Amino acid sequence: MVLKKQDRIENSPLRLEELPVPEPDATEIRLKISVCGVCRTDLHIVEGELPAHKMPVVIGHQIVGRVDKVGRNAKKYKLGERLGVPWLFKTCGICKYCKSNRENLCDNPMFTGYDADG
Q1: pTM of the entire structure?
Q2: What average pLDDT does the structure give for the chain?
Q3: Is 30 in a helix, a strand, or coil?
Q4: Residue 14 and residue 43: Cα distance in Å, rounded?
């Protein structure tokens, strides 16, 4: 579901759209999604209770799928492997928290379904 403009859920701000299938870069993998849940965080994004970081955005971060494409440097993953996708999409890797193995406290995080498409 694609969100192009935040609005109350009663006003049906989400749209079902066909999007181009993304290609993973060298360090990424691509999943064929099996299931994706919607939680209250997604509704906070949809309704504008959390300010928009990226528009349009594909919401959802409770995702399970199978690897269907592997970037050339993402060697630890195998085609067909079943994986879950976390809310924490990416961290900066350079702040004091990242450098002390506490990425969950990163100063510049990116979140799935908020900063990056879910």
Answers
A1: 0.85
A2: 94
A3: strand
A4: 10
